[in-house]
Amino acid sequence: MKGKSAASLAIGGGLERWAERRLRYLMLAPAVLILLALTIFPSLYMFYAAVHRISPNPDLPWQFVGAANFARLFSDGQFQAALRNTAIFTVVAVSVEFLLGLGLALLLDKYIRRMTFLKTVLMIPMMLPPIAVAITWKLIYEPQFGVLNEIMYRLGLPPQAWAGDVDLAMFSIIVADVWQWTPFIFLLMLAGLASLPVEPYEAAELDGASSWRQFWDLTIPFLKPVIAIALLLRVMDALRLFDLVFILTGGGPADRTKVLSLYIYQVAYRFADPGYAAAISLFVLFVTIVLSTWFMKRMRLVE
Q1: Alpha-carbon distance 244 to 138, whole Å?
Q2: CB 112 within 8 A of CB 118
Q3: 113-116, long-range: CB within 8 Å, 24+ apart, which pairs?
Q4: Rounded Cα–Cα distance for residues 187 and 30 (Å)
Q5: Residue 199 has pLDDT above 50, yes or no
Q6: Positive or negative, the Cα torsion across 216, 222, 226, 231?
């Protein structure tokens, strides 16, 4: 009887483990299906489209062209201009956002720690929809009735066509993006500062280290993982900038603000060349992956 009981328990335990494994897979199935539908299938479809010439006429078959769409990237002047504009915007905007966000986080963490209301106000811009932010800044930059030119007039300065001037258009877009996304860096840096250990700073003060030396030798190394994540997320987001440019300048004047996302949109829908648009999208994806991998290794987040 004892042998039968032990065998029954073993069989029951095996069935229970088998059912648990099957239940685990069953519970993961909806997430996997959603991932396949929203991520993997569109990616495979984009790869397939990138090696074809697709006619705007749906009755005509797709023509396989191999790497021809990718070869066009090296001779397309508009693509190169969009790539240059995207690089300028990403480097300048993310750098300014990081410096301002880190500075605000250090200020509020050290001197204004109890002012929760001020922290909440500073985070409002990042909570607004990008379309609403773009429309708001379009009204601010409006040449005749905009708030910014009204301030310029009261200061005795000449009004400017902020979003329509060749020399000021990119600057205007960067300012709007910095206003919206500096709070994102600020929030991450503030959370990182709140998690710093106290003991190393107490030891540094006993050793007579200045605040500046503590910042470089303690704060920055401790914040390194948070800084890496913040910069990585912002760079990835800046590479796909679309809303601000589309509403504020439409890529002009003279293509000075045309970025890659806007150019992909124009190629796909205005020029009716979705195959070439898919090739540009894959290029942006490749650049994003390469930069992300290099950055994480540089910050030693991965081996």
Answers
A1: 9
A2: yes
A3: none
A4: 33
A5: yes
A6: positive
CA separation for the pair 283, 125 (Å, rounded): 31
Encoded amino acid at 265, one letter: Y
Distance CA 166, CA 299 (A): 37
- Tell me the three-class secondary structure of the chain, residue by residue: CHHHHHHHHHHHHHHHHHHHHHHHHHHHHHHHHHHHHHHHHHHHHHHHHHCEECCCCCCCCCEECCCHHHHHHHCCHHHHHHHHHHHHHHHHHHHHHHHHHHHHHHHHHHCCCCCHHHHHHHCHHHHCCHHHHHHHHHHHCCCCCCHHHHHHHHCCCCCCCCCCCCCCHHHHHHHHHHHHHHHHHHHHHHHHHHCCCCHHHHHHHHCCCCHHHHHHHHHHHHHHHHHHHHHHHHHHHHHCCCHHHHHHCCCCCCCCCCCHHHHHHHHHHHCCCHHHHHHHHHHHHHHHHHHHHHHHHHCCCCC
Burial class (CB in 10 A: 0-12, 13-18, 19+), 157: exposed
Class at the top of the CATH hierarchy for domain 71-298 = mainly alpha
Percent of the chain topping pLDDT 90: 34
Contact 238, 93 (CB under 8 A): yes
Residue 9 reports pLDDT greater than 50:
no
pLDDT tens digit sequence for 35-56: 777 888 888 888 998 998 988 8
Q: Can you give the pTM of this predicted structure?
A: 0.85
